[in-house]
Amino acid sequence: MTQIKLTLVCPQALAEQMSEFLLDCEQLKGGFTAWSGNGHGADFATASLREQVRGSVHVFLLIAIMEESGLAPLLASLRARFRAPHVRYWTEPVLEFGDLA
What's the rounded mean pLDDT across residues 55-82? Predict the structure, then answer.
């Protein structure tokens, strides 16, 4: 049973839709952590004037620990529902995961 850390970043405008969708995903039944952040980069084609001046865009950020075997089905579902530019993800191996209780 190999676990991975999934990080998902999307425009803040998709935050509510993305959260609702992910709350219903079987692959993330263990939950996830989400927050708002600021994305910095070179592509500001869809940024508002305020974001262009500030030099960052508002983003929704999600982190989840999940089974590696669930990644492909989850990504397929996300692509089917949220195929859009600026929706990015990456994964990292998880060496340990637990609580301190």
Answer: 91
Following DSSP, what letter does each residue of 11-35 receive, concatenated?
A: EGGGHHHHHHHHHT-GGGTT--EEE
Rounded CA-CA distance 32/6 in Å is: 9
Using an 8 Å Cβ cutoff, are 32 and 62 in contact? yes
Helices (H) and strands (E) in the chain, counts: 3, 4
Q: Identity (one letter) of the amino acid at 84? A: A
Contacts of 73 (CB under 8 A, 6+ apart): 27
Q: What is the pLDDT of residue 80?
A: 93
Residue 85 has what pLDDT? 73
Domain range list for the chain: 3-83
Q: Is the pLDDT of residue 40 over 80?
A: no
